[in-house]
Amino acid sequence: MKTIIISGSRNPSGQTATAAKAVQEGLADKGAACEECFLPTMKVERCRQCDDAGWGVCRSEGRCVIEDDFAALADKIRQADAVVFANPVYFGDLSESLRAFLDRLRRVTRNDAGKKGIAATPALGVCVAGGGGGGAANCCLSLEKVLATCGFDVVDLFPVRRQNLEAKLASLREAGTWLAETAVRRPD
Question: In the chain, which stretches have pLDDT less than 50?
Fold first, then answer.
């Protein structure tokens, strides 16, 4: 089994990375290969809404015209058996880097060619709120909505607060183990 973790966090040793690592440990316990991608270190531009109607070839061809790391990352998702989205909560919502990536992904998946290999892929979401710890649940709702729009099979979401991170690590490891044991992609 191959899993990709898409992280909206820049800090590879912060709270979001700690939560993602727990999921990764559970996956590894069952022999699942895992690759982690840190979106803020990649070149992923925001959607340009190419034409006057606010669309472009994303809608007609299922691809994006912007030449950056988006297409390669979308291809990695297409090759994976499951995807984990790990997000630091900012202002009760998705990080800017994850939002930019998912805004473009949901546009290309409006076309069957763009949805191929993404539709029905099991996805797990982890939203980690630092600071006062608020907004994790709202962020999970936002993440679930966009992932469902893309066609992912959203199998679970974990709202995590800075204050309960240590307590949630065991659940996140177990989620990784469970994902490795049960992730089955439905045919496109």
Answer: none
